[in-house]
Amino acid sequence: MNTLLIIDDEPIIRKLLSRMMELEGYEVWQAVDCTQGMRQIKLHKPQVVLCDVFLPDGNGVDMVKKIKLETPLIEVILLTAHGNIEDGVQAIKNGAFDYITKGDDNNKIIPIISRAMDQVNSQQNSNNDLPKIDKKPLQVNSFNTIIGNSETLHRVEELARKVADTDIPVLLTGETGTGKEVFAQAIHSASLRSKFPVVAINCSAFSRDLLESELFGYRAGSFTGAMKDKKGLVEVANHGTLFLDEIGEMAYPLQAKLLRVLESGEYIKIGDTSPSQVDVRIISATNRDLKNEIIAGNFREDLFYRLSVFQIHLPALRERREDIPLLAKSFLARYSEKLGKHIDGMSSEFLNAITNAEWHGNVRELKNVIERSAIVCDSSLTLQDLPFDLQVPYSSYNSSSLSTGVQNSDDAKSFDFELAEIERRHIVRVLQHTNGNKTEAARLLKIGLTTLYRKIDEYKLNK
């Protein structure tokens, strides 16, 4: 289990954050000051520490340095109600994973803790000095693992096969959950670079400075806490492939450094004075319209044209519905084995429901629904094993029904008139759409993250 220590002298904040992270599956300990925090670290050895800056017996910025000296594998995130640039810079130099203000926690805290945990797990599982990020290596696979017989998918796969054995950059576009990472791996596996590493990084997961550090590395002594040279992902992926997911989220100033890699194969490590040379293929992906981002001034036009020499748009699942039964059967076989259950296929009503669903989360959402259904089913997947909103599609609530009202008692039985039940179902639907990402769900619902957690507790959605 992932482990977290929260150090904060405000009991309300400490307990709220603890409850939030426990709902995310973390084992959480608490401390009220630096002294108690250090005791908890020695006793429990947490993987990540979330620490307030202003504590009764010390300063969190100074405490970062002490923690990193005694337990360098622990990642420390500083949380403060009064952020300032000087403290933030010093915290990062002392070895902090990130520095955020309490006013930002609704949007940032859970993703940041998750990334810090990924960093710790990567470090613990590695026997070398590679950068440790949200960067589990992509699973080894090929075009043979891309499931579907639709003409739409075949056209996309044919394009990917043709570009695979070249060295030109590829830009994968499409909605969230359409399989961009799977295609990136398939292209690498079929390329002449397949014997060398493929390294993935999500550009939205890091601030500008941290992303620059992870991509290009740094020299020892370039800042306080940089005790030795660190390789960047560009160097790790040398002769192989670098997959840049969510490329549209990369900070504008950093885009110029990436452009230099594409144009000349050169990059400069932080703290270095001379460029290093690299031979790497770049595959990038985005669910944004980068041309609109260029117009808005958020993305460099010259970088776009370098990245999109060969652009492939991946279709949404609703654009290849004939592939849904094949995907569902594949996921069912996987989860049957994982759960140790014998499941006798899917009923025709179940297949009909999932084939006609909208799947705004695409393949990722379908996979989650199949796993959920496999958990709750008895012997085979039936309509009742689906989430309620997939059992009764939105088309059932047509405009005529809404305008004329419920026509008879039989119709009335199919509706739930309690506002709380309607709210509960809507929250469930949004959580399924965001793949369980509560921060994103709160944004879509236009409510605070703490409000969402309160409703999850109220409706017992975490059971």
From TrEMBL:
Keyword Methyltransferase listed = no
Q: PROSITE patterns annotated for this entry? A: RESPONSE_REGULATORY, SIGMA54_INTERACT_1, SIGMA54_INTERACT_4
Record-linked Gene3D superfamilies? 1.10.8.60, 3.40.50.2300, Homeodomain-like, P-loop containing nucleotide triphosphate hydrolases
Give every Response regulatory domain span.
3-117
Residues with 4-aspartylphosphate modification: D52
Q: Provide this UniProt record's keywords sorted from A to Z.
A: ATP-binding, Nucleotide-binding, Phosphoprotein, Transcription, Transcription regulation
Q: Which residues form the Sigma-54 factor interaction domain?
A: 146-375
Superkingdom of source: Bacteria
InterPro entries in the cross-refs: AAA+_ATPase, AAA_lid_NorR, CheY-like_superfamily, Homeodomain-like_sf, HTH_Fis, P-loop_NTPase, Sig_transdc_resp-reg_receiver, Sigma_54_int
Under which name does UniProt file this protein? Sigma-54-dependent Fis family transcriptional regulator
Source species of the chain: Prevotella herbatica
